[in-house]
Write a structure and sequence with these properties.
The chain is α+β, with helices and mostly antiparallel strands and about 270 residues long. The protein is about 20% helix and about 20% strand. The strands form three sheets. Strands 1-3-8-6 form a four-stranded antiparallel sheet, with no helix packed on it. It has a four-stranded mixed sheet with strand order 2-10-9-5, with no helix packed on it. It has a two-stranded antiparallel ribbon with strand order 4-7. The longest helix has 20 residues. The model has no long low-confidence stretch (mean pLDDT about 95).
Length: about 270
């Protein structure tokens, strides 16, 4: 039988690793993160799929998408802007991609900004769904809940920040315990010396790139810098986020975990 009922709209956003599986079978995602701390770009564009449950029409059908002010802290024109200007399901299609451009701003280093988009009913579409179950042909719905557990498909949240977090290719044995300050220093020194960027530490193929040889090289460059700062005198010593002397493999004048008062003067 043909479909009978009210045509419905819902967010059907999919994202995942480009190196794993066809994107058409990626899981339905309940939110989208924009983490500038993991990428080198300062501007990114994301696509958000709005899907139709129901019939395919032979004419364009406008739909209503609003930014929910009470649940949005991101600033339009500063933190983001809509690339898509018309919210229309084109004739012959059952979906529309809404594109939004996001900008890295200074406050994102300290806070996570939120953009909440909501679909509203109109003369062409209702918004009848409050949850999304298993979608045939897809991987099971993703269980990532770092930023949110709200799975209402009538809304989609985007969380934007520029906070450095432990990258996937962090070499504990060579670089010691992770800290934001240490990673920031390693990024700067390894870029200046060898051209390495965030993608080399946290990109999709970072673990296959950041092998032992590269980790050794980064440790040598970083330990040389730390020792040089130590030799200049106490006021130049590099103190880590936890109050101890910053340490990587190759440092000779102190061990991991020592506080400045426990380290000898040069």
């Amino acid at each position: 039988m043909d479909y009978e009922g009210v045509d419905g709209l819902y967010f059907d956003v999919q994202w995942g690793s480009k190196g794993h599986g066809d994107s058409t079978v990626w899981s339905h995602q309940i939110y989208t993160p924009v983490e500038f701390g993991k990428i080198d770009e300062s501007v990114v564009t994301k696509r958000f799929k709005v899907a139709v449950a129901g019939s395919v029409a032979n004419f364009d059908r406008p739909f209503v998408l609003e930014v929910v002010a009470d649940s949005t802290t991101a600033r339009e024109g500063e933190d983001y802007e809509f690339v898509t200007k018309d919210f229309v399901i084109p004739a012959g299609l059952n979906h529309k991609y809404v594109e939004v451009k996001f900008y890295k701003t200074a406050r994102m280093a300290e806070e996570t900004c939120q953009l909440q988009m909501a679909l509203r009913p109109n003369e062409y579409f209702n918004t009848p769904f409050s949850e999304v179950g298993t979608i045939p042909g897809r991987w099971d719905n993703d269980t990532q809940t770092i930023y949110s557990t709200n799975d209402d498909p009538r809304i989609h949240n985007v969380f934007i920040n520029d906070m450095l977090t432990k990258p996937s290719a962090w070499h504990q044995a060579k670089w010691g315990n992770f800290s934001v300050k240490k990673y920031d220093l390693i990024l700067r020194l390894s870029y200046e010396s060898n051209g390495y960027t965030k993608k080399d530490f946290d990109g999709e193929d970072a673990n296959s790139k950041m092998l032992s040889g590269r980790a050794d090289l980064i440790a040598r460059v970083t330990s040389k810098f730390l020792e040089e700062q130590w030799s200049k005198g106490r006021e130049f010593w590099v103190i880590d986020d936890d109050g101890t002397m910053m340490w990587v493999y190759g440092v000779k004048h102190w061990t991991a975990g020592l506080k400045p008062e426990e380290v000898n003067e040069p």
